[in-house]
Amino acid sequence: MPTLAPRHWVGSLLLVLAVPLLLWQSMPEQQWMVAQADFLALHSTLEILAIVVATLVFFTGAAVAETGRSSRAMELGGAFLAVGVLDLLHLLAYAGMPDLLGPNSPQKTILLWLLARYIAAFGLLGYVLLAERPAPASRWLRMGWFVGMLLLALGLAWLPLTAPDQLASLYQEGVGLTPLKIWLEWGACGLYLLAALLLVLRRRRISGCEFGSLLLALLLMAVSELFFTLYVRITSSTNLLGHVYKLAAYYFLYRAIYVEAVRRPFRQMQHMLSHDALTGLPSRSAVIEHLAATLARAGASRRPGAVLLLDLDHFQNINDTLGHEQGDRLLVEIAARLREVLPAQATLARFSGDQFMVHLEDTTQAAARQCAESLLVALAREFELGEDRIGISASIGLAGHALEPISADTLIRRADLALRQAKQAGRNCQIAYSDALDAVFRRETQLEAGLRQALARGELALHYQPKWEIESGRLSGWEALLRWHSAELGEVRPDEFIPVAERTGLILPIGDWVLRQACLQLRQWRDEGLPAGTMAVNLSARQFRQRDIAEEVSRVLRETGLQPHDLELEITESMLMDDLAAASVALTDLQRLGVRIAIDDFGTGYSSLAYLKSLPLHCLKIDRSFVSDITGDGHDATIVRTIVALAHSLGLVVVAEGVETQAQFACLREVHCDQAQGYLFFKPLAPPECRDLLGACKRLAEGGTAAG
């Protein structure tokens, strides 16, 4: 049996004292008599307090619908409504009180007493034995139960109140208790002890009460019944001790049932504030508070530890394809699996929607990395949710704390930075924080701050790289490429600032500016009579996902006076495959507009024949990684040849990117690639340089030597 809490020591002491008290009172000559008036006052006080507790237990059961308690609480509330009524009638039927439906007598009061004790015993037995089920939602059903118990109590009390002498005698004046009365008291005692035994055996199945107080209540009620087997006269000390033990039992019953019911909503509210409702794990605020307290202790004792931030890869796809209900079920299963793998002393919390945090105390960084790896291995096993088998991976950022003082915010920021690096590294991996990552973070912060002002300051500019027809040698068009010269940072490479713009959402206004500026530039060259060809503009993933992308492009074309076929929009394979259905709708809208669509960096993504066949595409651009070694790697040459043949069979134009040598150019001509761009011809040029090149092309064309 579990150790009793300090507040139960008084009850435990009463149980210990019961043995010598029962032995003392078992001898009639040791029982001392109390004056009738004094006994009546003491008895009335004890019974009134007992009736109050019975009423509180009834109110607890009556409020089951409002507090979300089970039908067990309702059953006990009804039983103690009957007990309270019978105890009240027992009090009023005592000798010395005004006569109640006939002369008051010991027979009458004992009958009412026994009825109350047996209903209390059976009510507590039912509370312990009944299964945990929600209380009926219908107010009429609940009211019917309580009215029924009230009528039962009044019905049982009717004969003892009106004709108690028609029932078997339970007490004889001057002699004492009859054997029947003694056996009935022993029977009630046995029922209370049985309820106590069942409570211990079924402890894990019983909620909504305080175990220790309820156990003490049952044992004290059993002891109380033993005192009522011993007294010789109604006003003896034995009778009074029995009522004292009954009141003590009622006090612990009050603590077990009523106080627990009152405190439960507050504990639930506190739990809700500190725990995630779906997984039951500590919430973000709770784990940060825990981490701050732990770091304060660890700093003082110089104990190491680590924080792991785990983010599920592409979890949104689960919600989109299987629905949010399955997504929630998956999160619950993931939380359970993580908990199984983690050490017992580790703290696991749900940090955000699909992100979990683990805090490992007294752990070296090497051990933390091993733990992170075990989490990745655990998640690699498929999850079975009904008929669905779901595979999902995760990215983990790790940050350790050793001897130096560190705040919770700083430690979490470091773990988040490492997590971001893990995602950029391809996901399904772990990355530990280092000073180099911190330098990257500071650089990204500077880039983000500068990029927010770059448009307004006029620091962004477009350069244009020409595209050439391989067979004719004519300039076929341009690709607009964004450049940034920051006043504070100097020249910033696109591969540095474009990811920052994507992550922060700044790519949307910047992308709109690029589209408009490139179209204006093409319009200007056309107005100057230069043979500019077409203009290709790269769309970002965020731009492409906008529902009104076709309307935005149409508006820019109208404002700049260009025809739709003058514009080519370049998108990547990953942008298509992230949401193929939405991409198909957007491309169809752009096709109706008349704009050409090119797949950029083809061969590095999905390279699926299915989408090439089904989507309205115009051009494939072979990634430079295949072109760079086309002359030295037979595999790359085969890939390029296959791509060209595949594209031509589908009626698509093929453009090779990153052409830098004559040998590469010769190979591309041999496989009948349509167009090429790269440093072999020209690097990306500023607008004035582009104008000079276009002027030269115009003069060559007019001189009939375009092929040169």
UniProtKB/TrEMBL annotation:
Q: Cross-referenced PANTHER family, in alphabetical order?
A: BIOFILM ARCHITECTURE MAINTENANCE PROTEIN MBAA (PTHR44757:SF2), DIGUANYLATE CYCLASE DGCP (PTHR44757)
Q: Which InterPro entries match?
A: Biofilm_reg_signaling, EAL_dom, EAL_sf, GGDEF_dom, MASE3, Nucleotide_cyclase, Rev_trsase/Diguanyl_cyclase
Tell me its EC number(s), please.
Answer: 3.1.4.52
Q: Note one Pfam family from the annotation.
A: GGDEF
Give the superkingdom in one word: Bacteria
Q: Start and end of every EAL domain?
A: 444-698
Q: Which residues form the signal peptide?
A: none
**Ranges for the GGDEF domain?**
303-435
Organism name: Thermomonas haemolytica
PROSITE patterns recorded: EAL, GGDEF
For this protein, the record's NCBIfam families field holds: GGDEF
The protein depicted here goes by the name cyclic-guanylate-specific phosphodiesterase
Any one GO molecular-function label of the UniProt entry: cyclic-guanylate-specific phosphodiesterase activity
What UniProt keywords apply to this chain's record, in alphabetical order? c-di-GMP, Membrane, Transmembrane, Transmembrane helix
Where is the chain membrane-spanning? 44-64, 76-97, 109-131, 143-163, 183-201, 213-232
